[in-house]
Design a protein that fits this description.
There is one protein chain. Helix content is 16%, strand content 26%. It is of the alpha+beta class. The chain has two domains: 56 residues, Alpha-Beta Plaits (2-Layer Sandwich), CATH 3.30.70; 105 residues, RRM (RNA recognition motif) domain (Alpha-Beta Plaits, 2-Layer Sandwich). The strands form four sheets. A four-stranded antiparallel β-sheet has the order 6-7-5-10. A two-stranded antiparallel ribbon has the order 1-2. Strands 3-4 form a two-stranded antiparallel ribbon. The protein is globular, with a radius of gyration of 17 Å.
């Protein structure tokens, strides 16, 4: 679930999605200070309930239009996606908060399409560098991600652009290659689309 109110609670989500079916797990993504990040994961006990929840995409919930998609699957969208670059499924994300996590990025781009991998750039000392690369299964996902440029993620307006062949942004910024080995101490990209502790 994306584009949620900052004040959303697990009880709010349970109340909203209980009509879809039996809910077995709810997790609101929060920052280190405990504040909501506007995204959450909701688990149901059967696929029919998931389909019912997907049909709620675009409806209003606590004053915002819901974004709903299957974790790790292509989302349900009410608007037509922009034209995609046919040869590029990787985006560069700049001005990323040092408190931003891989789960935050996955939740932020959940409405764009299936995500293959996420990489937060870190220095040799393990500290974040303030940018990341996200690779989608399809170029159309990258195109939809670029459309989110300027939106707020963990209290910063992020810049999203197509990555160049070396993993930087279109303008050649961004540093190391996305596909090459990362900085020492940098965590490897995970293929999981669920938040840590979900299972």
């Amino acid at each position: 679930m994306g584009n949620l109110s900052w004040s959303v609670t697990e009880d709010d989500l349970r109340q909203q999605f209980t009509p879809c079916g039996t809910i077995v797990r709810v997790k609101v993504l929060t920052s280190p200070d405990g504040r909501s990040k506007g995204a959450a994961f909701v688990g149901f006990d059967n696929a029919a309930s998931v389909d019912a929840a997907l049909n709620m995409a675009g409806t209003e919930f606590l004053g915002r239009q819901l974004k709903v998609s299957k974790a790790g699957d292509k989302p349900v969208r009410r608007d037509a996606p922009p034209a995609a670059r046919p040869d590029n499924s990787v985006v560069f994300v700049g001005n990323v908060s040092y408190n931003c996590t891989e789960d935050d990025l996955r939740a932020f781009f959940a409405g764009c399409g299936a995500i293959k991998s996420v990489r937060l750039a870190r220095g040799e000392d393990g500290r974040p560098k303030g940018f990341a690369h996200v690779e989608f299964d399809e170029p159309s996902g990258a195109a939809q991600a670029v459309a989110l440029s300027g939106r707020e993620l963990v209290e910063r307006q992020v810049r999203v652009d197509f990555a160049d062949q070396k993993g930087g942004s279109r303008g050649g910024r961004g540093g190391r290659s996305f596909h090459g080995s990362g900085p020492r101490g940098a965590p490897g990209a995970s293929s999981s689309s669920k938040p840590s502790g979900w299972d």
